[in-house]
C-alpha cells in the first residue's frame, strides 16, 4: 500500500509540474493572458486593441468603414454613439470650463510608428489633461487625411487626434484640425523622422512641447462618442477645437504619402446625443 501511495504522489507531482510548464509556455507566447491593459487606444493595434478582432480592416473596398461592423462582430462599430460626426447642430454651454491642459515642454517623445492605418507618435508619461478633477494622460497622437470630423459640413485637409486615458481606461481625445497655410516648425521636427514604411518604427527619445501643436484659441465642441477605428469603443469624450492650426502644403503631402489614401471614417449619425460648444476663450 505504501508503494502505491508513493507512486500516486509521484504521478501527481509530475502532473502539476507539466501544468505549470504549459502555463508558462502559453504566457510566453501570449503575454496578454498575463496582464492586459484596460486602455483601448485609437488607431493603435500595437497598443491595446484587445480581444478577438479582424486584422484586415482598412479604409477601402470590402474591408472599408462600411463593413467594419460585419468584420468586427464583437466591436461597437454598429453602435448608436459612434464617431466622427458633422458638428452642425450644437448648444453653447457657458458653464463649460477652459480645458485644463498640462503639457510640459520637456516630455519625451518616445517613438514614431507607421501602423498601416496612420502615422502615430508615442509619448512617455508626463503630459496630461484634467477633466472633472481626474487626470487623463497623453498616450499618443496620430493623423487622418482629410479630417474625420466636419464642422458645419467643412472637411479640413488634416485632423490630429491626441489620445488620453485615465487609470480606469476611459478615453479623452483632443481633435485638432489643420489647414493649409504657413510652415509649421513643430511639424518640421515631427516629419524629420519620416518616411516610414508600414509596420516600421523609429525611436525618437527627444523632448517635444505638444503645446506648439495646439491652436491659440482653445474654444471647443464637446460630445460623447467612440474610437473612429475598430473596435469603435463607445467610451470616448471628444473635444474638437473650433480653430484649426496652419501647416504648409508640403508638410501635408509628407503625411499623406506615409498613410493610406483617405484614412478617415465618414460621419456617423448623432442620434440622441447633444453636442455642446464652449464659450470663446
CATH topology of the largest domain: Carbonic Anhydrase II
Q: Tell me the major beta sheet.
A: 13 strands, mixed
User: Which architecture of the largest domain would the CATH scheme give at its second level?
Assistant: Roll
Fraction of residues in helices? 10-25%
Secondary-structure element order, N to C: HHEEEEEEEEEEHEEEEHE
Strand content: 25-35%
Average pLDDT metric: 85
Top CATH class of the largest domain: Alpha Beta
Unreliable stretches: 1-54
Which outline best applies? globular
How many beta-strand elements?
A: 15
When the domains are counted, the total is 2
Radius of gyration (Å): 22 Å
Task: Give the N-to-C terminal Cα separation.
Answer: 86 Å
Structural class: alpha+beta
Total number of helices: 4
CATH superfamily of the largest domain: Alpha carbonic anhydrase
Protein name: Carbonic anhydrase
Family: Belongs to the alpha-carbonic anhydrase family.
EC number: 4.2.1.1
GO molecular function: carbonate dehydratase activity; zinc ion binding
Short description:
The protein is of the alpha+beta class. The protein has helices at residues 2-29, 68-71, 185-191, 249-257; strands at 86-87, 91-92, 100-102, 108-114, 119-123, 128-131, 134-144, 150-151, 158-165, 171-180, 201-207, 220-225, 236-241, 245-247, 276-277.
Descriptive account of the structure:
The protein has 281 residues and is α+β, with helices and mostly antiparallel strands. It has two domains: 2-33; 61-277, Alpha carbonic anhydrase (Carbonic Anhydrase II, Roll), CATH 3.10.200.10. It contains four helices and 15 strands. It has helices at 2-29, 68-71, 185-191, 249-257, and strands spanning 86-87, 91-92, 100-102, 108-114, 119-123, 128-131, 134-144, 150-151, 158-165, 171-180, 201-207, 220-225, 236-241, 245-247, 276-277. The strands form two sheets. Strands 2, 3, 4, 5, 6, 7, 9, 10, 11, 12, 13, 14 and 15 form a 13-stranded mixed beta sheet that branches. The protein has a two-stranded parallel sheet with strand order 1-8. The longest helix has 28 residues, at 2-29.
Amino acid at each position: 500500500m505504501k508503494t502505491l501511495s508513493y507512486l500516486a504522489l509521484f504521478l501527481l507531482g509530475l502532473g502539476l509540474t507539466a501544468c505549470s510548464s504549459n502555463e508558462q509556455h502559453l504566457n510566453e507566447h501570449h503575454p496578454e493572458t498575463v496582464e492586459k491593459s484596460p486602455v483601448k487606444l485609437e488607431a493603435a493595434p500595437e497598443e491595446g486593441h484587445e480581444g478577438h478582432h479582424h486584422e484586415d480592416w482598412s479604409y477601402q473596398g470590402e474591408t472599408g468603414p462600411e463593413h467594419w461592423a460585419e468584420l468586427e462582430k464583437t466591436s461597437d462599430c454598429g453602435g448608436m454613439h459612434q464617431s466622427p460626426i458633422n458638428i452642425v447642430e450644437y448648444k453653447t454651454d457657458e458653464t463649460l470650463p477652459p480645458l485644463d491642459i498640462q503639457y510640459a515642454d520637456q516630455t519625451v517623445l518616445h517613438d514614431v510608428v507607421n501602423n498601416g492605418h496612420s502615422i502615430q507618435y508615442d509619448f512617455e508619461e508626463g503630459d496630461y489633461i484634467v477633466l472633472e478633477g481626474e487626470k487623463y494622460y497623453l498616450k499618443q497622437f496620430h493623423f487622418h487625411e482629410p479630417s474625420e470630423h466636419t464642422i458645419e459640413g467643412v472637411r479640413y485637409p488634416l485632423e490630429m487626434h491626441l489620445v488620453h486615458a485615465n487609470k480606469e481606461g476611459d478615453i479623452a481625445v483632443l481633435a485638432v484640425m489643420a489647414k493649409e497655410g504657413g510652415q509649421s516648425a513643430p511639424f518640421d521636427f515631427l516629419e524629420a523622422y519620416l518616411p516610414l514604411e508600414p509596420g516600421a518604427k523609429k525611436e525618437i527619445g527627444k523632448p517635444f512641447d505638444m503645446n506648439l501643436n495646439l491652436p491659440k484659441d482653445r474654444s471647443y465642441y464637446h460630445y460623447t462618442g467612440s474610437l473612429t477605428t475598430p473596435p469603435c469603443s463607445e467610451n470616448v469624450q471628444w473635444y474638437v477645437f473650433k480653430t484649426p492650426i496652419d501647416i504648409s502644403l508640403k508638410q501635408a503631402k509628407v503625411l499623406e504619402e506615409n498613410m493610406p489614401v483617405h484614412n478617415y471614417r465618414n460621419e456617423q449619425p448623432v442620434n440622441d446625443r447633444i453636442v455642446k460648444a464652449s464659450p470663446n476663450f
